[in-house]
Queue: 2 jobs
Job 1
Amino acid sequence: MKHRIIVAAALPAALAAWHPAAAQDDALLERARRIHASAPLVDGHNDLPWEIREKAQGDLSVIDPNGSLPQLHTDVPRLRAGGVGGVFWAAYVPVDRIGRGAAAFALAQIGLIKRMTDASPHLELARTADDVVRIHRAGKVASLIGIEGGHAIENSLDVLRQFHELGVRYMTLTHANTLDWADAATDTARHGGLTRFGEEVVREMNRLGMLVDLSHVSDETMKDAIAVSAAPVIFSHSSARALADHPRNVPDDVLAMLKQNGGVVMINFYSGFVEPTAARQMRGMFDVQRRFREQHPGDPQAAQRAYDAWRRANPVPRGTTATLADHVDHVVRVAGIDHVGLGSDYDGVTSLPVGMEDVSRFPHLTAELLRRGYSDDDVRKVLGGNVIRAMRQAEQVAERLQRERGPSQAVIDVMDGRLVRPRR
């Protein structure tokens, strides 16, 4: 009797396993994994370096990405399980560092990313599009560096050039706050987009071959940068505003501009930027963060704890894997299949769609795209082909511009009319 009960109890599970829908899901997931093996998935934005700095003061012996890190979204074993071929690690610089050593802070984060890469047999630093392809073919994950926050250059093109020399391959023009030369999406606009010096920052990034990242910037800054840039721009971790009405997302008129520019919108996974109700709830999130920083001057940990408590008291709907695929669909409809990618924001966000809880889950999104009828070739574009193409075009533009002109000698005080001349 005991054995008969066990068999009877197991029967529903066995039937479920043979259900046609379950079999189809398994087939799609296996197909997704084959696509990941055939071409690199490049994640446009991952904040693991910030978590290591905040939780372990940058000590890789305390938080070792080569081992299991279940308290975080990212570790090397899960990157490999998720079929990730490349990651733009964010060298994030908090806005409270404006005027307080932002460049030095960025240098420390770049150093951490390089130490993290060197310490892993499965990671390798990439500086070019060809590097990404080569490293993926070798069975490793390409480490790329992106600076999050143009305040890191401290209004100096010489600092920008030094960052590029160290391997930085994109810079997000602003973070949450408006800068001296660029308006942010989540702060008061002061310039109507880019100032003359801001335009020169874009031109110099073109000359260097550094991708111009427009996540976090205002609509007018987006449009100014696209108008000025001779190379494709990217949005390293933004989604479609038509689906989720948050200022961090990209409006349709800007999406349409990407057809001419060649740029790429890399879909952010944060629930507050992709799930419509959550986006409405989170519209003021950066204002809340700013208020807590003002309440805790000089104590960023206390400000973060206050924000975390606020988030727990204000939960948002998470969305699902299908929610992310909806954003991919929308960008494809408006801009085209050549202009969409993935920029997860893993380890930089507090809420993720159900089914996309960490970096191992990328194949499940790929399977959802396949379920919707995307071809294997189109999926390869979404996963990484588009951003690799944008990188390659930016490198080609840089080669041409470097033959035509030398480094810009522009100074913000002169270009933007801020120079105060001494009286005689």
Note: The longest strand covers residues 84-92.
Job 2
Amino acid sequence: MAVAAPPLPAAPPSSLETAAARLALLLTRGGSDLAEASGRGDLEFEAVVGLRPLPPRPAPADAWAVDGGQALVADGRCVQLVVTRAARVRFRSGRCVLEDEGELRAAVLGPAEAAVARSALQLPGLASDCAVDVNLLRDRWEWDAVERCLFEAEPGAIVLVDGDLQPDWRIPSTFLASLLERAGERGVVLVGVTKHSSLSRGGAPLLGQLEVEAAELFGDRARWWAPLARTRPDVGYGLQVVAARLDPDARFAFRVDLPGDVDPEPVLGALAALCDDAGFPGYPYPLAVADRLAACPRWLRQEVRMQLEEHFHRAGVPPQVRERAFADRHDLMERS
């Protein structure tokens, strides 16, 4: 009689199987603790998230939107040339009356260039030893564009910002505090809309969970909002963070940042009236226009690179010196 061979030991799970199992657990188990992946710690979160219906309101008569773009033009690793710009858009009574793609600003980044880059930011209170990267450059000039919108906006206007209302951590908190104060004095409301939020609950993306809960509570085509957090009292400025679904046809809800002293529901209701475009349901259309204007596509980067080459030629920089400094060796090796 033949003896059956013992079963072979099961192969250990692959790293992908282990990672997938962990993600599946995070996405399905729920949780209670709210957090932000950045770990900045500026926010105090609600103990319980309460979903609320969002009644519609008329659109603001004056609506502005600001978004920024950036591109890496030349990369020598230890030194880089980048460009940034901040676009502004204005809608009055539902009609676009301003499309300003913004000044294209070039900057040299690198350890030896930090002092020059900091000086070019023209930002009082900036730490004298802080590092300067493209994120700080872009953020600085986006907020400069926001400031110009505030001065030109009519009372009762909304100024929309792509992303949250918390500037880069290197920008002094007094800058935003002053901006919020001036906006309040002029009767203008700053609103930040984040397309892809890092807020979480129980380690999993928060907004996806709220979208499911809101559909069960209000139905599939409901507008809704929920308070999520406020800035700590010692931060230096007051903000509140909410989640909101702004159109019945919207696939997604968004994180929305507001000044801490405004009533969220009327502002969100007015914001929802700007979010009914068929191509971008649920997202403020003025911001979609600003995003298009601010983008720095490949053709723009190539155009700036050709201008840079002309400057190098006039300055007498030999072609082989330029190539050795800025050639992408990875790209060259992958093509060979």
Note: The mean pLDDT is 92.
